[in-house]
Amino acid sequence: MKPNLLIGSSRDLPWRGLLLDHHRGQGKADVFETHATGDVTLVVATRGRSMIQVFKQGRWHTALYEAGNAGLTRPGETTRMSWQALDADDRFETAHLYLSSAIIGEVAEEYRRIGTRYSDQPLSALVLRDPTIAALAGEVLGAMQDEMPGIYEEQATRFLAAHLLARHAGWWEPESDRRAPEAFGDRQLARVLDYMSSHFGKELTLTALASEACISVHHFVRRFRERMGMTPFAYLTEIRIEAACRMLRTGDMTVAEIGRLCGYTSAGSFSSAFHRRVGTTPRTYRAEARIRSNRQ
To answer: What sequence ranges are listed for the domain HTH araC/xylS-type (predicted)?
Structure first.
């Protein structure tokens, strides 16, 4: 049995393209075999150090995992392995990100140059060090704890898929790509902004927003950021928090009710998003707004 404790998971969140499990290992694990999945598995060390051994191609391979190091396992692959914690407290932590193979395929198809084939290099590595992956894993862990909505996860998953394909599968050479970006004019932008403003209380997806703009998802994210100076998720959060502020100032609904109306699935996720944006909690904001109103 693996002495491995699950200390957090995104399983109960409305995340469709990415499953995130946060594990803590202690002591050592004798040889065991992982289960095959239909996803690309990315394991990122987030705390402490461990030594792992993996049996591949008839022999054992050893690698050091310390914070920032990562490993990749392709879909359908099982791994025979063992590990041992190296630090004084005998513990280490890892983030296990399971990326949907369907989304990776969509990203590859969107960016693949016409007339070329996919790279044959698999997304598989015993150990790699990539600051972008390490930073993103930390951000996604924080997003899981704050119960970020699905549109955040969708943006993060597609960015991670593109990064893995470009940097670790050799599928794209930017200097050889001469395609012009898809058009994203004023009317398309206005249509998307109107859609977001009228549906901010619902669970919006990048696919739905890109459909409003009539362009592909990846081009939509890039072009939206160019035009608005922020990602679609950041803009949606701005709309939601502005609406919440109005409701808190002028209504008597509970904080939880306002959070649900503004698209948040729990009071905790609403409070976290509100605090990041406004600098205080919804309850404190409402109390201070009423004090100011009574003074006028």
So the answer is: 190-288
Please name which of 249, 271, 252 lies closest in space to residue 260, comparing C-alpha atoms.
271
From the candidate CATH numbers 2.40.128.110, 2.40.128.630, 2.60.120.810, 3.40.50.720, the one assigned to the domain spanning 4-168 = 2.60.120.810
Contact (CB, 8 A) for 219 and 229: no
Confidence tier at 118 by pLDDT (50, 70, 90)? low
What values do phi and psi take at 89, rounded to 5? -80, 0
Output the CA–CA distances (angstroms, integers) from residue 127 to 26, 197, 249, 258, in the order listed: 20, 44, 52, 45
Q: How far apart are CA 183 and CA 119, in angstroms?
A: 28
- pTM equals 0.78
End-to-end CA distance of the chain: 66
Q: What is the pLDDT of residue 180?
A: 55
Tens-place pLDDT, residues 34-56: 889 999 999 999 999 999 999 88
Question: Exposed (0-12), middle (13-18) or buried (19+): which is 182, by Cβ within 10 Å?
Answer: middle
How remote is the C-alpha of 287 from its chain's centroid?
34
Residue 171 structure tokens: 């599928």
